[in-house]
What we know:
This is NAD(P)H dehydrogenase (Quinone). InterPro entries: NAD(P)-bd_dom_sf, NmrA-like, NmrA-type_oxidoreductase. Its EC number is 1.6.5.2. It comes from Pigmentiphaga litoralis. By secondary structure, the chain is of the alpha/beta class. The protein folds into two domains: 3-135, NAD(P)-binding Rossmann-like Domain (Rossmann fold, 3-Layer(aba) Sandwich); 137-166 and 192-257 and 267-282, UDP-galactose 4-epimerase, domain 1. Helices cover 44% and strands 15% of the residues. The strands form two sheets. A seven-stranded parallel beta sheet has the order 3-2-1-4-5-6-8, with helices on both faces. The chain has a two-stranded parallel sheet with strand order 7-9. Strand 4, helix 3 (78-92) and strand 5 (96-102) form a beta-alpha-beta unit. The protein is globular, with a radius of gyration of 19 Å.
Amino acid sequence: MTIAVTGATGELGRLVIDRLKQRVPANEIVALVRDVHRAGTLGVEARAADYTQPDALEAALAGVDTLLLISSSEIGQRVAQHTNVINAAKKAGVRRVVYTSLLHADTSTLSLAPEHVDTEKALQASGLTHTILRNGWYTENYMGAVGSALGLGTLYSSAADGRIASASRADYADAAVAVLTGQGHEGKTYELAGDTAYTLAELAAEISSQSGKSIGYQSIPEADYAAALTKAGVPEGFAAVLASWDVAASQGALFDDSRVLSALIGHPTTPLAQSVKAALAT
Length: 282
């Protein structure tokens, strides 16, 4: 059995490759990447595969049995790119596709959701055997704010008291590997999130506890938060998107208490305290 992973030089992709090598022989793993020169440290075969080049994708998928389709990072172009991969997989004779979608994609108010829903529909229409991993938020998405919170003495957002059931990238990588190498996952959709949800006020309290510095939390209006992000150097359009995601979080878009993720990977998800400790160390 040959397992291929798209986006294999990305942060999630690298973790998946590392964990796959602990479960299956390296010669049964294929890293699909835009630039094969960046894949030298992965320790597996690398093939050039660009989401925008259908013919090259079909060639790269030759001989692949199972494909992990890690969602593209290019928001707004994902549906076309993912459809290219799905069509190429079908033509190449791939037996099964595992796709990284979004938590509660079909009901989510996050602006990211429609592209994931359309990709799920494309997979269904393809007739390919598939599994949907609806990944929740990465805890790392918030760890980038630790430094600024320490500098300002306050953690700012527009998430109010919304509860966030995030998990680490490593947790989601473990889930992908469990499905790629396990049995009985065909046709299933998994809602994946961290075991213990937290508010950003609780995140601020954890940063305070571990750093020894008093860090407050302030939820501000969406437009004000977007403006603050822009002032900090975030491109204006993306700043607006980030602020809108916080508002969605305040409405429960990042919450889930099913603990499907920890059941799937066979261990508890990474505690928030552990992630904060790692962030402070860097």
